[in-house]
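Purpose: get a first structural picture of the assembly so the mutagenesis plan has something to point at.
Setup: two entries, given in the order below. No constraints added.
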Amino acid sequence: MSQMINVSNEEHTLLFKHNTAAAWRFVFLFLISIVLMIYDHRSSQTEKLHSSLTTLVAPLQFSISKPIEIAEWLKSSFSTHQQLTQENTNLKSQLLLQKAEMQKIISLQKENKQLRALLRSTPTLQTNYQVAQILAVSLEPFLAQVILDKGKKQYVYKGQPVIDSTGLMGQVIQVGDLTSRVMLVSDSRSAIPVQDERTGVRAIVIGQGPGRLLKLINVPQTSDIRVGDELTTSGLGLKFPIGYPVGKVLKVENYPGQHFSTISVRPAANLEKSRQVLLIEQKSEAEIKEAKQDLKNISKEQEQDQKLRQTLGNTNL
Amino acid sequence: MNEARVNYFVLIFSIFLGLFLELLPAPTWASWFKPEWLLLVILFWIMYAPSKLNVTLAWILGLILDALTGTLLGEHALAMLITSFLFLKLQRRFKLYPIWQQCLFILLFVFLYQFTIFIIQGAIDQLPGSYFYWGTCLTSMIIWPWIYVLLRDWNKKFVK
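Result (structure tokens, whole complex):
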């Protein structure tokens, strides 16, 4: 062992004699990477750099993903006639059911609008959807992220919410020209304001890493959250629209001596299986600001309303 | 020491192949055990022809890997830089080792690479949530002889 160290020391000096430039280059690049990482972590100004890098590597991602998609397409195109007809009938019956549901929803929407008009509250925001495909590329296994095949060209923007057919998937964190990167709800940086559907208790759901359950944080042990409760986005924070399912409460543990309950949540979306997702188009930032202002005004109005009601003794409304 | 001649087509193509294999989709359990393809290819070329693939190029490739995988900018780059720089110091002796000893050293270097990333992830409080994270060292070690023989023979074929 000592011999080895001696040898390496000799070589070390030799190498440095020949290669002082290489050593300096190493130190230089070392410092650059550290500065870059700190800057990237602390500052949000690297967005442009990220976006151009995302654009740069997009062709690589597409070239990996396309053959796999083609293979899947080939597999499906060789499926038998019988399978297809069966699938078709299944889909038709599903469509019929959903159309029936839609009829109910339309009448409910009308009713809702009227009621809101009666209450003189603002109408809910209109949302548009855009379908996107998740690219079949592998990322670091400790990051809960996916790449979508839509980018700036298709008006994807940073912070845009992403859902699949069963619930909230996450939000867009980087946008390139042709692709964008989505942080899933299970990522350890993700936090989503939610509301218990049954009781209306508000809390925040955070991720704990890919493949792991979500966690409901800062919930007092006395608050009314039970196993099986559905959690939906509360719309507070104005990042996610209100009412999309986020998860279901799986386990509630109360330890005496602790302030908060430990609550595990199973995500509603198929985070690992979904291939097609929907991007929710919300308002632009200016409009969000406007909405924030509106919200403030509304809360003021409501306060005034309440005072008025209290003075009138009218609690029916 | 005389350096082997290198075919640039093989060099560039193998680097691209490494990048492709890094991106190849796999189920979650399998993605923990995915070998560090790009690192292995870079280490091979540093061993085989240290004047052709220098530390700066390894750093740039690490930066591309950062852009691809969505980690902090400079994270993979730094790990790549440290690993390849230390490997460069050992390169002359490494070449002469029998293949099993090479494998052991590859295990060590891939561990160093992963350890660097692990520390950075720890610094930003996003540690990998599974001990399988270290499984990559083992699979990389197992895959090394194949990469070594394949790239060497392939290069020889083109150089002649």
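Chain B has a mean pLDDT of 89.
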